[in-house]
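Posting this for the archive.
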Amino acid sequence: MNPELNDILEQANATLNNGAVNRHYHGPVHVGIDLGTAYTVFVVLDKDYRPLAGRYAFTELVRDGLVVDFIGAIQLLKRMRQEVEQQLGFPLTSAATTFPPGVPQAEVKATRNVVIGAGLECSSFIDEPSGANALLQVRDGAVVDIGGGTTGIAVIRDGEVVYTADEPTGGTHFSLVIAGAMNIPFEEAEEYKKDPENGRQLFSVVYPVMQKVGSIVSRHIRQHPVDTIYLVGGTSSMPGLAEVITDMTGTPTVTPPHPMFVTPIGVAMYDNNGNQP
């Protein structure tokens, strides 16, 4: 594991949530975009791959890895890019972005086209778990990316991804169950779910969905045994989820702080096409 992981993620949380930025920085930067089913994250790293600036927003532009609102996605990224450029004081020219594992490239190329449409060169196009591992630096284990719509699994041996899979079930399914159980709108359920104070009382409500995620992970690692499972993606922060997956797989499962930022930061580390001030 990356010994600086927790520190980097805490810095990302301060940067993306509180707008903290080093306005005196004028070195090369690396840009990562994670266009997800529930959240789109736009992050900028400095030359040392430390969070420098960024934005994230709840969106409904992607479904199961496929862009369903192409124009809306372009407009969102344009706005994020312009806001971050204004914050940094210099233009951004390229970005790396993601796609879910197991989805044919022909079907997800729209994600790359969204980045291009927003005025950025798409420097790299990497599957989500592999992107996450650029930051995690797992040598042996499984990286499980629980996004808004899908759960992606990557088995890693000697630092290389040897197996990937992706199946429906993610944060959107948790929110739908909460909305139905509490008789509240989906958007309200999404906000309620994110409040850490509500996590434990929601456990019994969302436990069946946690079991579904656990069964997906268990099935895929059965033929690829690992010693540790690493959870990333915003849904991974649900209290009790790591414990459920541990119980169902028999494999220790860990979640880093602010797991929603792991993949976009890792993906940004693949952007080396010369974002220079």
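The CA atoms of residues 104 and 177 lie 29 Å apart. The two ends are 32 Å apart (CA to CA).
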